[in-house]
Amino acid sequence: MKFSLVADTLKYMENTTKRLELTQYLVDLFKLTPPDIISKVVYLLQGKLRPDHEGVEIGIAEKIAIKALSKSSGISVAKIENKYKDIGDFGQATAQILEKKTQTTFLSQDITVERVYDTLYKISELRGTRSQDMKMKYIFSLLNDATPIEAGFIVKIITSNLRLGIADYTILDALAIAFTGSKENRPVLEHAYNVCSDLGKVAEAVANNGTESLKDFQVEMFSPIRPMLAERVKSPQEAHEKMGKEIAAEYKLDGERVQIHVQDNKIILYSRSLENITNYYPDIVENISKSLDTKKVILEAEIVAINEDTGEFLPFQELMHRRRKYKIAKAVQEYPVTVNFFDVLYINGKSCLDSPYKERRKILEKIVKEDSFAKVIPMTITHTDDEVEDILENAINSGCEGLMLKQLDGTYRAGARGSNWLKLKREYRNELGDSLDLVIVGAFYGKGRRTGRYGALLLSAYDRKTDTFPSLCKVGTGFTDENLDQFYQILSDKITIKKDPRIQSGLEADVWFEPEVVIEIVASEITLSPIHKVAQDKIRKGSGLALRFPKFTGRIRFEKTSENATSIDEIVILYNNQKRVIQDEKRPNFKNM
Ligand code: AMP
């Protein structure tokens, strides 16, 4: 299949933000794609080669791509960089640079999707000292044979600059329309996707055999299941209204969620965003089998850092010390953890997703042999608001965030946020009542003690409808010196020459970043703002929303992708709730009259 078909589709898609049009372009492309390469097309459309959990990364720095482009076009690196800066889009800059060249040479051969994919795959496998040269060679060969438009998209894919504003569900819609004739069938595709977390695999199955093959998509070992999420409730009453009388209450521990796949000696750990995080936890790999009375199982747990002397749970940020490439053994010694199981998704060849919570819980209690390293999160069956309130109090006193409330008959709804699980945190009157997970999009250089580091960060929420990152606040408090160093380090990889077009803010940051790092923020209030752009014009014309007195809590939410950041809708709800609290307070208090 000619790569030009993909490139043309990408070009049309870049020129629209309307979801219906985006979907239609995808439908047209999928219909033209032979089923045996549809998975490759789906991965490329997402700027990937394989699903995230397989950890296959193209990983080309912009600098290398610019060098290859310079070699292919005969134009100097400095000139290319300037062009890129002027245009602000690497793909368009590449296309314009190569435009001149194609007028003087003739193309040697058509490039195909297979060739692009296979070359990128080879690049992803390169390791070692000579790998940079080899990468250059491969990119050079592709750029040489590609048309300017194709080359533009190739450089965008390899440098992770392809941003089409399409989420997984848009691709699922398009696959449903292209291969089953109707969007109505999307739930069947979605179910298969939630079970295997591999859009390419779902695409291949539906393109070959329609929905039939999807119905019996099974849970497989080492193919992570999309995690079930919880809805927020504000009180035990609200939980009882949603769940009925009998509710299972578990402590909500403050750690990192992990999906553990164990088959004999093979153990893989997946994070909440389904990244393979096995390397950070060699102690879990070494010890976990001793705590399990089974050899083939998929479990979910919360990893929590502990103080080994006292057995106390430590705050989430202690786990950040485990996120490193080198000296892991030292980090394991210094920052010990416990594994706290809360669910079982598969055991000995059988999926447990359709079993009710109470049965899964029974299995879990049977197979986990508790010791100081592995535990089952305690659970109490409650019937009244007071009981829930008491357990919440105990949970908070033991350093937990709150409670997870679970419907006893509820199945495990992979990939869904629903009312089978509810989270109940302590409410603070006059404060926002909950923290926000925001994306770092820019930074301002520090002064005084912070010279040479960032003094403040610009943070955005995520707008799912438009795939944009409107800013919500500038934050400069809550950072320790260690945090400041850490941010400087983490963010240095994310700097972009120009502001990503998806970022919207009335502030001009000193440095702009790829919107990728998510951090947790608390604040005292949400106010209207002429500068920040969340919910722009929705509440008052000419205003967006902003946080008042924002403060970093110390948590980098490295398990969250920027699409999991707090959404605009959630912020509008918090804004409206807060208005209600203020109005309630102003109401006359009859007792005092
Ligand atoms: P949130 O990240 O605020 O949406 O809360 C959901 C998260 O709570 C899950 O992703 C888990 O990491 C965590 N968690 C802690 N304790 C439990 C528990 N007992 N059951 C389920 N999830 C839990």
Question: Considering DSSP H and I runs of 4 or more, what fraction of the residues is helical?
Answer: 25-40%
| Class computed from helices, strands and strand pairing | alpha+beta
Task: Assign the CATH superfamily of the largest domain.
Answer: DNA ligase/mRNA capping enzyme
Mean pLDDT across all amino acids: 89
Distance between the termini: 80 Å
Instruction: Please give the count of helices.
Output: 20
**Radius of gyration computed on alpha carbons:** 25 Å
Give the tally of β-strands.
Answer: 21
Anisotropy-based shape = globular
- Identify every distinct bound molecule in the structure, by name, code or SMILES: adenosine monophosphate
CATH class of the largest domain: Alpha Beta
Strand content: 15-25%
Largest sheet: 8 strands, mixed
Named CATH architecture of the largest domain: 2-Layer Sandwich
**Poorly predicted residue ranges:** 582-593
CATH topology of the largest domain: D-amino Acid Aminotransferase, Chain A, domain 1
Total number of distinct structural domains: 3
